[in-house]
Automatic annotation (TrEMBL):
Catalyzes the conversion of acetate into acetyl-CoA (AcCoA), an essential intermediate at the junction of anabolic and catabolic pathways. AcsA undergoes a two-step reaction. In the first half reaction, AcsA combines acetate with ATP to form acetyl-adenylate (AcAMP) intermediate. In the second half reaction, it can then transfer the acetyl group from AcAMP to the sulfhydryl group of CoA, forming the product AcCoA. Residues 89-477 form the AMP-dependent synthetase/ligase domain. It catalyses: acetate + ATP + CoA = acetyl-CoA + AMP + diphosphate. Residues 31-86 form the Acetyl-coenzyme A synthetase N-terminal domain. Its cofactor is Mg(2+). GO terms for molecular function: acetate-CoA ligase activity; AMP binding; ATP binding; metal ion binding. It comes from Methylotenera oryzisoli. This is Acetyl-coenzyme A synthetase. The gene is acs.
């Protein structure tokens, strides 16, 4: 199989001469040279970058320690502080450069210079110090997108606290589970948030989450007054503004070991509860910076805008850490792309003269739809001439969406960096470098220099280019996940399975390399992880949520292709009572969707629920998910169903409750 037959698009877009001329990695020869350097002296390659890009308080002498593989250590005897690398370092050079241009939901803007941000972070860090928090303690951050979210994360980093940001779209129950798993001592939240012209509560979910029990370790809840929404007040609550009142606005950064955990970020896997992906300080920051430099080609006068929320890894690496450490000016946006209308992104690019724009395919696809129905909000109505580079992240970008992004947004002038990576990889691992790599719509192209990524078969053996297989990373890299918090065994079995020899990192995606160019195309997850609007969800998690409802006996969840969201969630449910019909079925569907929203978060609500007297199982009782996926797509089952115990059930499961 060649890539063309997967992609249905074989045009190649070479970088323009203009772009190549000024690029940080200029031309394919430069890219090849970097890859050759990494191949010739792997540790030397990373050590050189770490000395060049990071400011060390105590320089490292050892680059990589593999003694306890796969628990790798990078730069292990070095010491530094991540916040000092993002802020203090700029105080003598660019104190008055704008670090953040914040645009609120209502369109009001606010600018923060590097010096302002430094003081705000220092002051908040001093506030946190008053709360009996010590180096290594965990702090949950549950805040809307805004300057304060960045301040809170940076302040934790400044004094060695390990933050764990929980996306505001997760429920009280999800918050409760994360607080317990992380053993967090404090939560930082806000009274509410502004989104799409509405004022929505936020702190109430924290109250509810804590009240669910098991959160006795929480000593304090810091509350930002954001909306003025009325909130319940508990004895361990403290206002953000009271915490920093009369507190100094300078604060010595606490130097930590290179391997000191910078943060935990919970993400879904194929089994069990979400896992706390643990990242390091030095290795993580190094890759966030270097990808800003090589993938995003960051230059002094760029205005960088990554639209991701800080609740996701993209917002960690390309909002809170990478852009600041590189001294960039960036946009932070509180609102949503469709308010007050679906031209909001384009209007903001025009207004702030954004030069580098990084967003998700699902957003692009929804804006394509919007500009078809409402031509006034199409990108061509806006002056987007400031753009010079576009990026895509989170899910495969289909060639049609790629071409629209390229032509309508980028004016056929801006390269697109389709960046493949994961919460676990910390930063980009496959991506074009815009001044070097020829672009093929729908392909994330080639490995980031130094990342030894490839495709193998089920036994870990290389497959020839042109043959599909499992995406793996063969050598440890600095920004890799260090462990799953509280569950090192799960880290080993999830990412370093013995079937593959136990020494190579299994990404969990299927991939194929083009027979001629070696370009990668990602073929989607090989496990039971769904990607809904760029959000990662485990089918098992949704199933567990459903069976926790008193009406449900059994549930199976699969994904189904969706033209805007990438994938949508289809749930097959067997009730404890009889299979419902008509209005009764509709009522239960509404109840179960609401229930999943409460258990996990609105993003996990099934798009479709179908009821059966049973689920299709083999004689040994295993649910045949393959059949459920076929049914979800509305296709006829043509494959062999001779092992199926109860074929009659399939007819029932074709019916969607509308
Ligand atoms: O399936 C891949 C998909 O998103 C997964 C990682 O999700 P998460 O940890 O939430 O991180 C998302 C943001 C980095 C991957 O295993 N994915 C991510 N980027 C791409 C992608 N699939 C195809 N192309 C991409 N560019």
């Amino acid at each position: 199989m060649s890539i063309e037959s997967v992609l249905h698009e074989n045009r190649v877009f070479e970088p323009s001469a203009d772009f190549v001329k000024n690029a940080n990695v200029s031309g394919m020869a430069a890219y090849n040279q970097l890859c050759a350097e990494a191949a010739a002296d792997y540790e030397g390659f990373w050590a050189k970058l770490a000395r060049e890009l990071l400011v060390w308080n105590k320089p490292f002498t050892k680059t990589l320690n593999q003694e306890n593989a796969p628990f790798y250590k990078w730069f292990e005897d070095g010491e530094l502080n991540v916040s000092a690398n993002c802020l203090d370092k700029h105080l003598n050079t660019i104190p008055n450069k704008v670090a953040i241009i914040f645009e609120g939901d209502d369109g009001a803007t606010q600018e923060v210079t590097y010096k302002d941000l430094y003081h705000r972070v220092c002051q908040f860090a001093n506030g946190l110090k008053k709360l009996n928090l010590n180096v290594g303690d965990r702090v949950i951050i549950y805040l809307p997108m805004g300057i304060e979210a960045v301040v809170a994360m940076q302040a934790c980093a400044r004094i060695g606290l390990i933050h764990s940001v929980v996306f505001g779209g997760f429920s009280a129950k999800s918050l409760n589970e994360r607080i317990i798993d992380a053993g967090a001592k404090a939560v930082i939240t806000s009274d509410g948030q502004f989104r799409g012209g509405k004022t929505l509560p936020l702190k109430s979910a924290v109250d509810e989450g804590i009240a669910m029990g098991g959160c006795e370790v929480i000593e304090k809840v810091v509350v930002l007054k954001k909306t003025g929404l009325e909130i319940a007040w508990n004895s361990n609550n403290i206002w953000w503004h009271d915490l920093i009142a009369n507190v100094a606005d300078t604060c010595e950064p606490v130097m930590v070991n290179a391997e000191h955990p910078l943060f935990l970020l919970y993400t879904s896997g194929s089994t069990g509860k979400p896992k706390g992906v643990q990242h390091s300080s030095a290795g993580y920051l190094l890759h966030a910076m270097n990808t800003m430099r090589w993938t995003f080609d960051i230059h002094e006068n760029d205005v960088f805008w990554c639209t991701a929320d800080v609740g996701w890894i993209t917002g960690h690496s390309y909002v809170t850490y990478g852009p600041l450490a590189m001294g960039a000016t960036q946009i932070i946006f509180e609102g949503i792309p469709t308010y007050p209308n679906a031209g909001r992104f384009w209007q903001m690019i025009e207004k702030h003269k954004v030069s580098i724009f990084y967003t998700a395919p699902t957003a692009i696809r929804s804006l394509i739809k919007a500009s078809e129905t409402t031509p006034e909000v199409a990108p061509k109505n806006y002056n987007l001439s400031s753009l010079r580079l576009l990026g895509s992240v989170g899910e495969p970008i289909n060639p049609e969406a790629w071409m629209w992004y390229f032509e309508q947004v980028g004016g056929s002038r801006c390269p697109i960096a389709d960046t493949f990576w994961q919460t676990e990889t910390g930063g980009h691992v496959i991506t074009p470098l815009p001044g070097a790599t020829p672009l093929v719509p729908g392909s994330c192209t080639l490995p980031f220099p130094g990342i030894d990524i490839d495709v193998v078969d089920e036994t870990g053996k290389d497959v020839p280019w042109g043959t599909g297989g499992l995406l793996v990373i063969k050598k440890p890299w600095p920004s890799m996940i260090r462990t799953i918090y509280n569950d090192p065994e799960r880290y080993k079995t999830s990412y370093y399975p013995v079937d593959l020899g136990g020494k190579i990192y299994l990404a969990g995606d299927g991939a194929i390399r083009d027979a001629k160019t070696g370009n990668f195309t990602i073929m989607g997850r090989i496990d039971d992880v769904l990607n809904v609007s760029g959000h990662r969800l485990g089918t098992m998690e949704i199933e567990s949520a459903l069976v926790a409802n008193h009406l449900v006996a059994e549930a199976a969840v699969v994904g189904k292709p969706h033209d805007v969201k990438g994938e949508s969630v289809v749930a097959y449910v067997v009730l404890k009572g009889p299979r419902p019909e008509g209005d009764e079925a509709k009522k239960i569907v509404a109840e179960l969707r609401e229930w999943v929203g409460k258990e996990i978060g609105p993003i996990a609500k099934p798009d479709e629920i179908r009821f059966g007297d049973n689920l299709p199982k083999t004689r040994s009782g295993k649910i045949m998910r393959r059949l459920l996926r076929t049914l979800a797509r509305g296709e006829e089952i043509t494959s062999d169903i001779s092992t199926l115990d109860n074929p009659a059930i399939l007819e029932q499961l074709k019916e969607v409750v509308k």
